[in-house]
Write a structure and sequence with these properties.
By secondary structure, this protein is α/β, with parallel strands linked by helices. It has two domains: 168 residues, 3-Layer(aba) Sandwich (Rossmann fold), CATH 3.40.50; 85 residues, Rossmann fold (3-Layer(aba) Sandwich). Helix content is 39%, strand content 24%. The strands form two sheets. The protein has a six-stranded mixed beta sheet, sandwiched between helices. Strand 7, helix 6 and strand 8 form a beta-alpha-beta unit. Helix 3 packs across helix 4, helix 3 runs parallel beside helix 5 and helix 5 packs parallel to helix 6. It binds adenosine-5'-triphosphate and magnesium ion. The site of adenosine-5'-triphosphate has 12 residues, from strand 2 and helix 1.
């Protein structure tokens, strides 16, 4: 039996007359790298906003580890284990790398920690923050203000910020956006490491098809808010509907890649 960490059932989000997410059904396997692809405006970010609790669905259900979280508010989702990044960089520029990550580690603290002494509590934030910084490969840059980080390192910092809250499931919306092409493999390696070392489940929105094809265990293709296709990278590359619908036109590198299969 497959182990499903997150399941969306008939998930829908309408903005007035525009149906941005159209009755999407989705099962995300624990430990997988599950990518969502599709053209601009397909509803990928809106779907992530529904999964993270930033938006409430118009209808449908969302199950996390079998529990109905459809109406669970945003601040509680982080506590159940869902962490997310945004399509736009989300870092406090005037704080250092360490301060940014440490704040994130501390932000999740709740009543559960009151049994610890002050010292225990602070050292546990510190340990979590340093571990996250280490995992993303920013060791040595702890005291650098975020504002002076090059774009690639800022994206790593965002990953560390998410990791500091120790999520089981990470929602990454275009983590390579705006990065120089030569920096992309390193960031993707970091993301793969996070998944492997930390035993995490990762959902990824990504426009770079060669990245998607090489890292994903499963791919869901969205078009006009709905699921157009779902499968392994090989199945998606071979899917005639997906190809003729838009992938061949949308992604220049797609034709060449699918010839390899
Ligand atoms: N808050 C909002 N209010 C009204 N319409 C919205 C809102 N957010 C998104 N939309 C619309 O919903 C549709 C889906 O947008 P969404 O941002 O989810 O697409 P996307 O797949 O993430 O696109 P991209 O690849 O450009 O990031 C678009 O038509 C968009 O204009
Ligand atoms: Mg988007």
């Amino acid at each position: 039996m497959t182990d499903i960490i997150l399941e969306a059932q008939q998930l829908r989000k309408a903005f007035g007359g525009l149906v941005a997410v159209n009755d999407v059904g989705l099962q995300v396997e624990r430990g997988s790298m599950h990518s969502i692809i599709g053209p601009n405006g397909a509803g990928k970010t809106t779907l992530f906003n529904l999964l993270s609790g930033n938006l409430r669905p118009t209808s449908g259900r969302l199950l996390y580890n079998g529990r109905d979280i459809t109406n669970l508010p945003l601040h509680k989702r982080a506590h159940v284990g869902i962490g997310r990044s945004f399509q736009i960089t989300n870092v406090f520029n005037n704080l250092t790398v360490y301060e940014n990550v440490r704040l994130a580690a501390q932000a999740l603290d709740g009543a559960s920690m009151v049994v610890f002494t002050r010292y225990d509590r602070f050292s546990s934030y510190e340990a979590k923050a340093l571990e996250a910084i280490e995992t993303v490969g920013l060791r040595g840059l702890e005291n650098v203000p975020a504002t002076v980080l090059p774009h690639g390192n800022k994206r790593k910092l965002e990953l560390a910020i998410i990791l500091a809250s120790d999520p089981e499931l990470l929602l990454l919306d275009e983590p390579t956006a705006g990065m120089a092409t030569e920096q992309v493999p390193e960031l993707m390696q970091t993301i793969s490491d996070i998944r492997a070392i930390g035993n995490k489940t990762i959902m990824l929105v990504e426009h770079n098809m060669s990245v998607v094809m090489s890292v994903s265990s499963k791919i869901t293709v969205m078009n006009y808010g709905a699921v157009l296709a779902e499968g392994t990278p090989e199945e998606i590359a071979a899917n005639v509907t997906v190809q003729s619908a838009y992938l061949g036109d949308l992604y220049g590198d797609f034709d060449e890649m699918s010839k390899g299969h």
